[in-house]
Structures are given as C-alpha cells and as structure tokens.
Specification:
By secondary structure, this protein is of the alpha/beta class. It has twelve helices and 22 strands. The longest helix is centred in the first third of the chain and has 16 residues. It starts with 5 loop residues before the first helix and ends with a helix. The protein binds manganese (II) ion (2 copies).
C-alpha cells in the first residue's frame, strides 16, 4: 500500500475520513438567497423579542398569521389542524396535527425563549448621593463585568393589586431614555483591576442609574427618588409598593445587526436561545404539507435558571397539552411519549481562537460548520446530561443527510473546563427520545452574542426535516 497512487489515496481518504467541511464549501448556491431572507426575518424577530414575554407575544403573532388557532381543552382536533396555547404569556406550545394518530408519537422541537438578564428587585428604587437607582438581581449565568456601561432598556409588567396589568417598555424606541450601570474610571480602578473577573463587579453594584433631577425644596431629603416616583405615577398610576408585584427586566438596548465586512454573522442580545426558538417556530410555520406525525414546537421559559417554575420545561403544562391532544384521540399519554422524538434545540459554544485552551479543538463546534449536534451536555463526567443513545444520533444523522442539512457534532468545551445543561434532560425524563442540537454561538450569555448566518439557516432546515420525518 505504500506505493498507492495519488488518485487511489484521494479516494480512500474520501471514503474513510470525515467529510465535515466549512458549510460555504457545501451549501448550494441557490440556497444563499433563502438563507439571507431567513436571517433578515430572524433579525426582525430578535428585535421584537427581547424578553420571554415579548418573545411569546411575537411567536403568537407570527403563528396566527400562519393560520394557527388558539386551542382550548375539549376542542376537536383533526389532521391538518394548526393550534397553539400560551402558558401564562411566557411559554408557547404549537402543534400541526399529523396524518397518523398520536399513538405513533409526536416530533418535537423544544427551545427556550428566556435569556440571561438583570431583573429588578422587589424593592428596587432608592436614592444615593442625590441620584436615583434601581437595584437588580441577575437572572441566569452572566459575567457581571459585561453588563456595566452599556445602554439598557426596561421591559416587563407591573401588576396592580386589582389585577390590572401595566406593560412597561422603556428604552427600545429611538427617542426613549435608557438606563446604565456605572463603572469605575481606570484612573481610580487600580485596586479593582487586580481582582479576578468573577469578583471585580459584585452583584450588589449592578444598580441602574434612573434619574438625577430633584423636586421640592432644598431642605427636603430623598427628592430625586420622589421625583422618579412622581414621574412613574403620572405615567402609569403606580406607587412604590406596586414594584412588589412587578416583573421588570433590564436587557441591552441595542438591536441585532450583521457583523463583518461580508455580513456573514449576526450580533445580538439573546441568540441563546431565540436563534433555535426561531428555527423551531419557522420550521413549523413553513411546513408546506401536513406531516406524517404531529409536529410540536415547544418554546419554554426559565431554562436559564434550571427549567423550574410553572412556565419552565419541568412544568406539567407540556404534558397537559399533549395529554389533551391524546384525549381527543383516546390515546394514553405514555403511549404517545414513548414513541416521540424531541430535538432539544439549544445553542452550543462556538470555538473561539482567542480562548482556544478551553476547547478540545477536535470536538468543538465551529462557526459555519452547520447545526451542532451534542450527544450529551453536562459537567465533569457528563453530570446532569441526558446523553442520547447512539441509535438516536444515527437517526438524526440520517434525517439531516437526506435533507442536505449541514451539521457537525461537538462537545461544549474541554472535559473539565466547565459545563452546562439544556431542556433535554427534562424531555428524556418523560420517556421521550431526545437529542441536543443547535447553533454554535460566540460570547454565549454576553449582552451581545454572535452567530453565523449559515448555522442559523441549517438549524432551521434540520428542524424542518425532523418535523417532516417519522421517528
Ligand atoms: Mn440555552
Ligand atoms: Mn444559556
């Protein structure tokens, strides 16, 4: 074999070695326009979806436009029906009823629509040094130093004792004021600069600057706080106690945009996990014909804090929705679940050459290499991972290859470098065969994350192929 000719060697290599390549060397020319259009739509979706509530509302808007109807328990369902429910305005479940009944299982794509952010504390407003501030409590895994000195907007609701809901959105419109967390100037930051990143910015200093103009006479105290409260009363008829029953979320005020001379990337807050949520949604809405099996899109809240809570993936809301659909066909839920498949669509870490030492470069996900499959997530010895079986990975490989989906397989990073989880484990706990897959992201959980357009589009194609194909 040592004297194998060049052609033979080339063929052997092609036959035996992995064919994963940069997606731009594989993608069909005529798909590039569709990719650009998809990404332009995704950018619009991102800008309308900066919190889980805004995202859920946007999802419902798009779904209704595509003919989806609000489902109510007891409604008859038939092949071809397109239905959705909203779980408390923070999580949305959609289904396109397939040709086969639910004893054949459903094809699920599950993603989450909450993202790391800064929530206001229950008693947030205070005055210090004649400036008004709002105290925050961070939500999800953030690197605190990234959240100072960037413009922030405030979104959410204040619910008054009588149940009246006041929607708050300050900072998204171009003329709106924004909020900011201050930071030390370098001239006085010498001691702070010696501290490790994790401790240099304590959580209790993540306070939003919210005003500085006093009212009343100079012999009074707390004049700036009172002035802010007065503005809020005039605009929303709320008093300080109403903050107790509010959910106000500070998120970056910047919008999504293209990145790079070639515009091949998208920078935005909240790609994790709206990039997969959008793929899961669009894949469903764009199905041109009724699928064999019922296709289900699950958009969950609370993933970033462990999928707890009534709107998280551990909530029975998901089981109840599928159970209601099963009841309409007289099929036990357990029979449906054990035949179902779920793609847990969540982002993975993209290899970053500036921080190469935390990745296993032979098992990392790369920008432009397509949707990233993750057999397992977890930390250390796969702790907390659902760890899909080989049969499931083979199934997804086959579906993706048959649909010309560009994909790669990876781990998050080096074995003992850290770890993470997704909703996969909670789907698997329900006896649903589950595999993680999603878009590789640079600077995950930062106020401004970056993804490759090609990977966004391939994830959409992958999800759609799975909706179409039986398990
Ligand atoms: Mn995620
Ligand atoms: Mn995350």
């Amino acid at each position: 074999m040592a004297n194998m000719d060049k052609e033979e060697y080339k063929n052997l290599k092609k036959k035996l070695l992995s064919g994963h390549k940069n997606g731009y060397d594989l993608v069909k020319e005529n798909e590039l326009d569709a990719m650009e259009q998809y990404c332009a739509d995704y950018i619009k979706f991102l800008n309308a979806s900066k919190t889980e509530r805004l995202c859920a509302a946007e999802v419902i808007k798009l779904a209704e436009k595509a003919g989806y109807k609000l489902y109510r328990r007891g409604m008859e369902i038939k092949t071809g029906d397109k239905i959705y429910i909203s779980n408390r305005g923070k999580s949305v479940l959609l289904a396109h009823i397939g040709k086969q009944d639910l004893s054949h299982g459903v094809q699920i794509a599950a993603a989450h629509i909450d993202s790391p952010r800064l929530d206001l504390k229950p008693t947030p407003l205070y005055e210090e040094s004649e400036m008004a501030w709002l105290k925050t409590h961070y939500y999800g895994g953030i690197r605190k130093y990234q959240w100072v000195t960037i413009p922030l907007e405030l979104n959410g609701v204040i619910v008054k004792k009588n149940g009246e809901i006041i929607n708050i959105n300050i900072g998204a419109a171009p003329d709106d004021p924004k909020f900011v967390i201050t930071d030390l100037l370098p001239h006085l930051g010498q001691e702070q600069a010696k501290k490790p990143l994790a401790t240099a910015i304590p959580a209790e200093t993540l306070n939003l600057l919210a005003g500085s103009r006093p009212i009343g006479n100079d012999d009074e105290s707390g004049r700036v706080k009172l002035a802010v409260m007065n503005l809020l009363y005039e605009k929303y008829q709320i008093t300080e106690d109403d903050f107790a029953s509010a959910e106000l979320e500070a998120v970056p005020a910047s919008n999504a945009c293209e990145i790079g001379f070639d515009k091949s990337l998208i920078g935005s807050y909240g790609h994790d996990d709206r990039v997969c949520a959008y793929a899961a949604l669009r894949g469903l809405l764009d199905l041109d014909e009724t699928p064999e099996k019922t296709a289900v899109c699950m958009l969950a809240d609370k993933e970033e804090i462990g999928s707890e809570g009534v709107t998280g993936m551990r909530s029975a809301a998901f089981d109840n929705f599928i159970k209601d659909l099963c009841a309409a066909q007289n099929i036990p839920l357990r029979a449906c679940f054990e035949k179902s498949f779920c793609l847990s669509a969540d982002v993975t870490a993209a290899f970053d050459p500036d921080y190469a030492d935390v990745y296993d470069k032979r098992n990392a996900a790369y920008i432009n290499y397509g949707v990233g499959l993750c057999k397992y997530t977890g930390a250390r010895g796969k702790s907390g991972a659902s760890d899909a079986d080989a049969e499931t990975v083979a199934y997804v490989r086959r579906v993706f290859d048959e649909a010309d989906v560009i994909w790669q397989i990876s781990e998050l990073g080096k074995v003992d470098a850290g770890g993470g989880g997704t909703v996969a484990a909670y789907m698997a706990q329900r006896n649903i065969t589950t595999l993680d897959a999603g878009v590789p992201v640079l600077s995950m959980h930062a106020p401004f994350e970056t993804v490759g357009k090609l990977d966004c589009y391939e994830t959409y194609k992958g999800v759609m192929a799975l909706y179409r194909t039986g398990f």
